[in-house]
Design a protein that fits this description.
Shape: elongated
Helix content: 40-55%
Strand content: 15-25%
């Protein structure tokens, strides 16, 4: 079973600020862990003043089990995260666990708030599709016997947390290399937010491929955007004046937006401009033209992360930190112009 939770109006962050303590201290008070009497009373006064109402005020994480795990994601409308949730949920359900989901958008403070809300909901572990940040709070939660597994994006500090990532550098390299081998010369890229490791690594792979194929990287043909269709449209519109013959988009939403804008401006994909992207969805396959994509194993990412989390939850002994890096797979469709150029060579 998968449920969606929303954070309360008053957050643990606000309680911590009112009490003059750190969020980890509030978390310890809520979970009946060792805190000085002075700090405990300050937290309880703040809780009363702000009328903060977590589900349960006291649980010792070392002895009780809720059979609930949390999943924190940045965009519930993005099918990539839906596939991660599906993979994780299937593994957890077989072991009698329920999965609840928090949708946070693109703000690190919302990410931290969701993590603390998950703790107050008495989850046994957290799957975190991170959007970045310094990792201090997830690390503290992880050390407090509520395991955290990081998915998709790295945190600045990972410490003892397990992680499941995709080889973004190699994937972006292969995607760009495919276009180089077809014969494209004038490249543009629409990146995601470069403070996120997945976006930055894809940019690195793109740069490396151009360098290896002796193609110049025009910095004026790079646009940083959020991972949305609108972001893809806006970026593509501004890139068209530079007359690229190929655009590499850092995710499927950016690629979909780019194709829509290119068509709106009267150009053809791929005859005038080739477009490729990351992720893989049914929407990409149904586009006109179908989208060439570097497919991420989203379901496998969710499954792998859930197994790592369960291993942490169930193990009574210290467990070695695990970092799983999964490969992406190139799926060639019509948007890159491969089949058209192949036909031209045949003639």
């Amino acid at each position: 079973m998968v449920g969606i939770i929303l954070t309360s109006k008053v957050t643990i962050i606000e309680v911590a600020k009112e009490a003059g303590v750190g969020t980890s201290t509030v978390s310890r008070v809520l979970n009946s862990q060792n805190v000085s009497e002075h700090k405990r009373k300050a937290v309880l006064r703040a809780i009363k003043k702000l009328n903060y109402r977590p589900n349960l005020m006291a649980r010792n994480l070392r002895t009780n089990v809720s059979k609930i795990c949390g999943l924190v994601i940045p965009d519930i409308c993005n099918s990539f995260f839906g596939q991660i949730a599906g993979g994780a949920g299937a593994v957890l359900e077989k072991q009698g666990y329920e999965l609840i989901i928090a949708n946070i958008g693109q703000k690190v403070e919302k990410q931290n708030e969701a993590i603390l809300t998950m703790v107050s909901r008495q989850v046994d572990g957290i799957l975190l599709c991170a959007i970045g940040g310094n990792g201090d709070l997830p690390n503290e939660i992880n050390k407090d016997n509520c395991p955290v597994v990081v998915i998709d994006n790295k945190l600045d500090k990972m410490d003892e947390m397990d992680s499941v990532m995709v080889d973004n550098v190699k994937g972006a390299y292969s995607l760009t290399e495919h276009l180089c081998m077809i014969g494209y010369k004038h490249f543009a890229m629409i990146t995601g937010p470069l403070e996120q490791s997945s976006a930055y690594e894809r940019f690195v792979g793109f740069q490396k491929a151009l360098k290896d194929y002796n193609l110049e990287l025009d910095e004026n043909m790079i646009r940083e955007s959020d991972f949305t269709i609108r972001g893809g449209r806006d970026a593509a519109r501004s890139l068209l004046t530079g007359k690229p013959d190929a655009i590499v988009a850092a995710n499927n939403h950016l690629a979909i937006g780019a194709i829509a804008e290119i068509k709106k401006e009267g150009f053809n994909v791929p005859d005038d401009i080739a477009v490729v992207g990351f992720d893989d969805t049914e929407v990409g396959e149904l586009l006109d033209p179908p989208l060439t994509i570097m497919s991420q194993p989203a379901v496998e990412m969710g499954e792998t992360a859930a197994r790592l989390l369960l291993h942490r939850i169930c193990s009574e002994e210290p467990v070695q930190v695990q970092e799983r890096i999964l490969p992406a797979r190139l799926i060639v469709r019509s948007s890159c112009g491969f089949y058209e150029k192949l036909g031209q060579l045949a003639n």
